[in-house]
Every structure is written in C-alpha cells, then in structure tokens.
Amino acid sequence: MSLVPIGEPGQKITVASLREKKLHHEPITCLTAYDYSSARLVDEAAIDIVLVGDSLAQTMLGYENTLSVTIEEMLHHTRAVRRGVKHALLVADMPFGSYQADPNDAVLNAARFVKEAGAEVVKIEGGEKRAALIRRIIDAEIPVAGHIGLTPQSVNVMGGYKVQGKNLSAIEQLMRDATALDRAGVALIVLEGIPREVAAMITAEIETPSIGIGAGPDCDGQVLVFHDILNLSWGTPAKFVRRYGDAAALITEAVQAFRTDVTGRRYPSDEESYHLPKETRTGLETVLDRKRAMRR
Ligand code: KIV
Hints:
The chain is α/β, with parallel strands linked by helices. It has 12 helices and 8 strands. Helix 2 packs across helix 4, helix 6 runs parallel beside helix 8 and helix 8 packs parallel to helix 9.
C-alpha cells in the first residue's frame, strides 16, 4: 500500500508517483504547454505531466518542423511554464542538436534545463542507440524521458511523419529500443505513432510507464499537444487527435467583437472609464467656465 495518495488534485507528481500509477493501473495524463497561462490551466486541471515539447517550434514559433528550435528558445519557454506549474511533473524536450554530437555537451545542456529553467526531467528522442548517453545523464542526477517510434527530430531520416513498427524487424527494433531505455532507468517512455498492438506489447514488457501519442489505448498514459485538442493548430489533424474544444472559434469571435465595438464607438463605455474625483471635477468645471467667460 502506498503511504502517499497518488495523483490526487493538489498532489505533487514525481517520477516515483508515475511508477506507482503504472503499478496500480491508473492512467497517466500528459499535455504539452509552452507558456505561463497554458501551463497554469493544465496544472490546475490536475494533469500529471506537463511537457514543454519541441513541438513549440511549430505551435508557438511557426517553424516548419522541430529541427530549427534552439536550446535558448526551449529554455525560454520552459522557464515560463515552470512559473505556471505547481503539481505536475515538468518535462522538457532537449532540442535537435543539443545531445546528438557530444555526450559531455549533452550532460551540460541537460543540466541547463534543470538549473536555468526548472525542468524535473529532460526528454531525448531515440532508443537503443541513446541508452549509453541516457545513462550518463541519469548519472549526473538528471531524470530522463525516452521517446521512440515516430521521432519528429528524425523526420528527414524517416522520409516524413510515418507510422513506425509496421513489420516484424521494425517491431523487434522497437522492442529492443524500449528494453534498452527501460534498463537505462528512464522516468517514462513516449511511444509515438506506432500500431496499438506493438505499444501494448512494449507496455506489458517494461517497468517504465509508457505514454502514448498515436499508439492506442493500452499505454500506461496518453499525451496530446495542447494546441491540437483546442483547434489551435493549422493543417489537418493526425488520426489520433481528439478535439476537446474550439479555442480558435472562441478567440476569433472575441477579437472580431472587439474590433466591431471599437470601430462602432461602443467600447469603452462610461462604466469602463476612470473618472475624476467629485471635488477635482467641480474645480475643473470652474476653471473651464472662467476661461470660456474670458473668451467672450
Ligand atoms: O514535442 C512534443 O510535443 C512531443 C509530444 C508529441 C510527445 O514530443
């Protein structure tokens, strides 16, 4: 029995509480957030994990893919999210180029996310071939999240955003990737864009919580992009995206109503304006009356 109630609203989520949730078959929730206000909303809705995903390259910065986003941009957004998150576990993506070249640089860059931006876990894409690096980062006391399957930083190698793990050798590789990360001691593994049958096999095989996106319902948890669930992403949504609200319509309606009110001189009203105190108004009226009298 756990001494700490897990996942109750208001309870701080840690790497350990995610493991507890997996053990107790309690679904884990994760959403991306990229700024203070969205982070507060997500955290106050008792979502377990807030991910500052490098998908902010597209959703916030308008880049074509995640490859262009820099470590400085990721740190800037992670700091803003940190200020809005109290209870959720804060995971930040290490961007493309910040961990692939040199393991020492990778450890130093991972430490920047913790020291300068308050991330609790850093996320790295790739499986078996990243296991040694991940061990080094964990040895430096920095928890790491894995990410396998459709890994957007490999878009040019994959030749597009394609579902992975569709034939036997690809499934075997994914199993090896998942086991290598599990053994390396990652905090969680994101399974992206893989058949549900494969995600189910991986989830059953590993002790680490699996968090799926386009990986079916049998993962230990699910993650979606904040902008996708609110209709704030442009383009055709992927098959797995479920829209829970239409913030685009809400924002457009509000912005157009503001424009109509201003151009029609209906905003601001007298009630929305500041007024002089009574004595000052009386004094001002006397001064203006005198001026008018002198002009006559
Ligand atoms: O960057 C991101 O938003 C992600 C999720 C899709 C898991 O990595």
